[in-house]
Amino acid sequence: MSHSSANEQVSESQFMDCYNDVESRFRNLVGLIQKLTRNDYASQTKQLNPVDRAKFDLEISYIINSLFTVYLQLKGKEISNHPINDELRTIQALMTKQVQLHEMMKKAPKLDKDVAKRLLGHKIRKCEDPDSVSSQEEM
Questions:
Q1: Could you tell me if 54 and 44 are in contact, meaning their C-beta atoms sit under 8 angstroms apart?
Q2: pLDDT tier, 124 (very low <50, low <70, confident <90, very high otherwise)
Q3: What is the pLDDT of residue 126?
Q4: Do the Cβ atoms of 92 and 62 come closer than 8 Å?
Q5: What is the rounded distance in angstroms from the CA atom of residue 94 to the CA atom of residue 102?
Q6: Which residue from 50, 55, 58 is spatially nearest to 91, judged by alpha carbons?
Q7: pLDDT by residue (tens digit) across 8-27?
Q8: How far apart are CA 138 and CA 45, in angstroms?
Q9: Degrees, nearest 5: CA angle 83-84-85
Q10: What is the C-alpha separation between 84 and 95, in angstroms, rounded?
Q11: What percent of the chain has pLDDT over 70?
């Protein structure tokens, strides 16, 4: 009997640990949502470049749809065939594509503005100088 009682205590202890973990994560989530809803969408995204704005939009979409999925599950709804799953898969695919594009952009060649400015400035001055043009034509 004491062995059974010990198992029940461990189970209760594990349950309380799990409960406390869920409660802590929920409080964290509520805090993050409050921060997010404190300002309107336009003010939150006005300083973002298009790439960061797309990433922000995808993350918000994923969060909202995930929370809706949790809500449906808590209500006891069967969600295995629910359209929300398709929406989540679509968002995940778009997030994957966004990450791939970000990686491609990192690998793309970068323009050294100072070098380009010097080269173009030199060519423009050469074209504007009539002596330079006539001496090039003679060659």
A1: no
A2: confident
A3: 81
A4: yes
A5: 12
A6: 58
A7: 566 888 889 998 998 999 89
A8: 58
A9: 90
A10: 16
A11: 86
Q: Which amino acid is at 47?
A: Q
Write the CB contacts of 66 (distance below 8 Å, at least 6 apart in sequence): 88
The tokens describing 117, both together, are 């400015």
- Cα dihedral 58→60→63→68 (10° resolution): -110
For residues 60 and 41, the answer to whether their CB atoms sit within 8 Å is no
The pairs formed by 16-25 with CB atoms below 8 angstroms and a separation of 24 or more are none
Distance between the two ends of the chain, CA-based, in angstroms? 107
Map tokens 């030199």 to a residue: 122
**DSSP per position, 2-27:** HHHHHHHHHHHHHHHHHHHHHHHHHH
